[in-house]
TrEMBL record:
Name of this chain's protein: Gastric triacylglycerol lipase
Signal sequence interval, chain numbering: 1-27
Classification lineage: Eukaryota, Metazoa, Ecdysozoa, Arthropoda, Chelicerata
Organism: Fragariocoptes setiger
Gene3D superfamilies recorded: alpha/beta hydrolase
The keyword Nuclease is assigned to this record: no
Domain AB hydrolase-1, chain residue ranges per copy: 171-256
Location of the Partial AB-hydrolase lipase domain: 71-132
Record's keyword terms, sorted: Lipid degradation, Lipid metabolism, Signal
Length: 471
């Protein structure tokens, strides 16, 4: 479910613009307390920016070049090579997948590298795996005996701040420097997944999907493509939030993928979301409406692209306002957010999805289930042959390489929901790391954007990858 919470702040601000308009609030029949909140939020926005949405300038200075780079440009700016691959899914969606190529890997080792697929969360993109490191460059692989031992990168003290050459915060670069073939996947609906072999993204039918289709078509399509290009049967997989939804969904509906995905690293694992304490749960009330709307939902290519630099530019001394908008939906851990880079983060998120996908999560909150999309009784009978949608049966998962990275301060992957998911697994996870034991305030987005991800999270993932490297 990924970045849904950290991006809801940006998307919500656009929604508030509409909610504060009398014609919209009356049409939707919204309660007065919600329209009052919208009015207050718009007043705050005008105080921050010094103008209204209609008269503020769209281009505001920021010195962070990553604000205007795409994923491949970010990769190349750090000295790596970037490849872009188009994966065509079985149902015709074209997904751009970025590959990080470490130019310092010795030629005789290049074909031996194990592929690792990284899957972002909701509203996000492959940028999550590379944007959080600016102090990193390629390293030779394998290292010469005269080089410092790679073991020195891994310690259990977790002292110091990440994003160094030894401890880059971005997992994509971390693994690329340590002998892995890194593939950054993108899901249908984000800015790298808005093409189709037969349809335009202007066609409403293009947006008739939820995470069901991402599970059924996107992830298998990317895996099969990587297998074909690399000649490797097994792939490592790292999912964050919705990326874990896709992993659990695929392993439960097609258990044979347990022989392909090794290991499955689940950051902020999501299956059930009923106990989320994020304000996003209040959007669930509109699920019956969203479920019947086939259209795009929230991308940084429109209004949000302008809101981020306006609120978070280096010229604005009120960066904490932007940070708090971000924390509002994901949990509070200001210590882990690099405020100097918020503008860059928000210019890459939200990256887009479908309204139907958002509605699917609303259904999950209301129903307390991890199930396929509910099309209504008639629609369910036509699609599934039953009155209600079938569950994703976690008991069918037979993978013995699942690693769970959890945090008790995670507003989205709430501890009660994670506990229920673990209880329904019939296999014992290979590894469980509760980050709260070392960072009590660690939250949902810190797994990818945390200032200490390079020292706390990435070394643990690396050790897990090494355990399955030769399988």
């Amino acid at each position: 479910m990924g970045m849904m919470l950290r991006t809801m702040a940006s998307i919500g601000l656009i929604g508030l613009c509409l909610l504060s308009m009398p014609e919209w609030s009356e049409t939707l029949g919204l309660p007065k307390r919600m329209t009052d909140f919208a009015d207050d939020a718009m007043t705050l926005f005008e105080e921050i920016t010094g103008g209204t949405l209609e008269d503020v300038a769209p281009h505001v200075y920021t010195s962070d070049p990553d604000t205007h780079r795409n994923v491949s440009e970010i990769i190349r700016s750090r000295g790596y090579l970037a490849e872009e691959h188009d994966v065509v899914t079985q149902d015709g969606y074209i997904l751009t997948v970025q590959r990080i190529v470490n130019p310092l890997v010795k030629p005789e080792y290049r074909n031996k590298l194990k592929p690792v697929i990284m899957q972002h969360g909701l509203f996000s993109s492959a940028a999550d795996w590379v944007i959080n490191s600016v102090q990193v460059k390629p390293e030779p692989y394998p290292k010469n005996s005269s080089d410092s031992s790679r073991d020195s990168y891994i310690d259990d003290t977790f002292d110091g701040v990440g994003d160094s050459q030894e401890h880059p915060n971005s997992l994509g670069f971390y693994l690329a420097n340590r002998g892995y073939d890194v593939w950054l996947a993108n899901s249908r609906g984000n800015i790298y997944g808005q093409r189709h072999v037969h349809m335009s993204s202007w066609n409403p039918k293009f947006w008739s999907f939820s995470f069901d289709e991402q599970i059924e078509f996107d992830l298998p399509g990317v895996i099969e493509y990587v297998q074909k290009v690399t000649g490797k049967h097994k792939v490592g997989y790292v999912g964050h939030s919705q990326g874990t939804v896709m992993g659990f969904g695929l392993l439960s509906s097609k258990p044979e993928y347990a022989d392909v995905i090794e290991p499955f690293v689940a950051l902020a694992p999501v299956a059930y979301v009923h106990h989320t304490i994020s304000p996003v749960k209040y959007f669930a009330v509109y699920t019956p409406v969203f479920s019947h709307i086939d259209m795009w939902f929230g991308t940084s290519n429109v209004a949000v692209k302008y809101l981020a630099p306006l609120v978070c530019s280096e010229k604005n001394i009120k960066k904490k306002i932007c940070a708090n908008l971000l924390f509002l939906t994901t949990g509070f851990d200001e210590d882990e957010l690099d405020e100097d880079r918020v503008a860059a983060y928000l210019n890459h998120t939200p990256s887009g999805t479908s309204v139907k996908n958002v509605a699917h999560y609303g259904q999950e909150i209301i129903s307390r289930r991890f199930a396929h999309f509910d099309h209504g009784i008639l629609g369910n009978i036509m699609k599934y042959g039953t009155h209600s949608p079938p569950d994703y049966d976690l008991s069918k998962i037979r993978s013995k390489s699942i690693a769970l990275f959890i945090a008790e301060n995670d507003w989205l992957a709430a501890p009660k929901d994670v506990a229920r998911m673990r209880a329904e697994l019939t296999v014992e996870p290979y590894y469980v790391f509760n980050v709260t034991t070392v960072k009590p305030k660690w939250n949902h987005i810190d797994f990818v954007y945390g200032k200490n991800a390079g020292t706390i999270i990435n070394p643990e993932i690396y050790k897990i990858m090494e355990a399955f490297k030769n399988d």
